[in-house]
């Protein structure tokens, strides 16, 4: 850490700060301003709650009543256009809540032509209130960076667990596939396609419950029957219609769910290759030509094939996710308790404390690229 500040009261008699530890390249003055703005918003939400808007207040903001007794920020990970920090904020109940603060470099986002993806992620995540999707609580901006205050999932990525285990048994894989199904059911009902399912984009909360993250490729379709056309996603997971530029709808997520299921059960995706063109050609040939692992059960193979049918409209779950829930591979799985999060997760992450980051891999920060302000206005509504 590069330094710290604090010890003096915030202005306007809001309260006293204990300490805010800075993680480069964040500005202490900026972080102080952001926390103050957040507190004002939360105070207003708290008053609304007292005025009878309790349920709406809870849905809009799960951290109503937050006070600035202390705020500690530590860098815990890197993201594509910036870095991720932890914001440890203490409430007036003297209990800690830890949030992830995603920090994006505006110039880098613009130079990499990712403006639309970043704005889509903000818009979609703010509208989502689902147990299987990470929460975005509030966003901020300044001349150089964008800030997204998000739910923190200290259990780390499912990919990390998969790497450590080698491959999952069927009950474990079923648990995480069910999570993707529930998230897709929620999104598809709202005409939102996700387009980037993979183990790296599913995080575990402190109890081991999975949640989808990284909605940069997500898109809200304009109407039933409309399509998206951007070539995006992870090479091993893209559907044939993406490669052939035939347009995309909710069916692309079902294809990726089949690939996701294969990877969880085998340890690697079925079309993995160092050459993207070889990967795309293999995808176009279809899953029927795969060399299936001997240990993979017939019911699992059949479900993967149903998700990965060449015709998007024939994929299991297209137009009705319930059809996938009723597949024999999910027989005996209690979706009701799963949705209520009363089912015991197969993997309980080891957590040493609220700000524990041991379950995350460390990557070089990309935040130093394209430094400098960007006041072109593309983020005016951020």
From TrEMBL:
Residue ranges annotated for the AGC-kinase C-terminal domain, each copy included: 331-382
Domain Protein kinase: 70-330
Keywords tagged on the record: ATP-binding, Kinase, Nucleotide-binding, Serine/threonine-protein kinase, Transferase
Record-linked Pfam families: Pkinase (PF00069)
GO molecular function: ATP binding; cGMP-dependent protein kinase activity
Signal peptide from the UniProt entry: none
Keyword Transferase attributed: yes
SUPFAM superfamilies, A to Z: Protein kinase-like (PK-like)
Co-factor(s): Mg(2+)
Cited InterPro entries: AGC-kinase_C, Kinase-like_dom_sf, Prot_kinase_dom, Ser/Thr_kinase_AS, STKc_cGK
Protein name (database record): Protein kinase domain-containing protein
